[in-house]
Amino acid sequence: MFSKFVVMDICNEHLESYLEHTCDDENSLLKSINRETYLKETMPHMLSGHYQGRVLAMLSKLAAPHTILEIGTFTGYATLCLAEGLSKEGIIHTIDVNAEQEERVQGYFDRSPFASQVKYHIGDAATVIPTIEGRFDLVFIDADKKRNHYYYELILDRVPSGGLILIDNVLWKGKVLDENPDNQTKQIIDLNEQLAQDQRIEKVLLPIRDGLFVLRKK
Fold first, then answer.
1. What is the Rg, in whole angstroms, of the alpha carbon atoms belonging to the chain?
2. Average pLDDT of the chain?
3. Rounded to an integer, what is the distance from CA 168 to the centroid of its chain?
4. How far from chain centre, in Å, is Cα 45?
5. Cβ 125 vs Cβ 148: under 8 Å
6. H-type helices in the chain, by residue range?
7. How many Cβ atoms are within 10 Å of 205's Cβ, its own excluded?
8. Which of 48, 153, 166, 207 is an S-S bond match for 78, by CB 3.0 to 4.6 Å?
9. pTM
10. Helices 102-111 and 28-40 meet at what angle, rounded to 10?
11. What pLDDT was estimated at residue 2?
12. What's the gap between Cα 158 and its chain centre?
């Protein structure tokens, strides 16, 4: 007899396949990044993936940002999805601490139509962000979960009214519903509660993949 968790996983797999079937296809470069990430990375699940990538691209296209900030590049999949919505002269700044991936990920960017619009920074986001001038029309936070609230407060004043902030992994594989959550889960729960009460933003939590908080600056 299947446990309810096994049944839920099977249902989620079928649902994910259906969602991917009904949205636009990945382009050939994104398919290549997806495949190579699963072949070469020890934690490939960190990749946004096909369906979430299309959601990020759609939100970016609706916002038509001039400047995007992404905190947490990984292998660049989400970066290129977000770049699809950039204005003609727009720039996306993406930051990651992993220098070992730099050559391969920069290669992906160089092969994309957005090669001149992607500014790839290697370093601690807390140090790099203050060196980037201007405002951020769209921010995607997908890095060290312990510092999500810090990153949020760091960038909020630089997001204009109507700008979007997206925060990934806010459902934490459903652990936010645990009766006795572990410490990392508690940090995510605390962040979600703080955002829910924050009157500076409009907010909606989308149950996409591992949870995506969509925040709009008032």
1. 17
2. 93
3. 5
4. 13
5. no
6. 4-22, 28-40, 49-63, 77-83, 102-111, 125-128, 148-156, 183-197
7. 17
8. 48
9. 0.92
10. 170
11. 42
12. 18
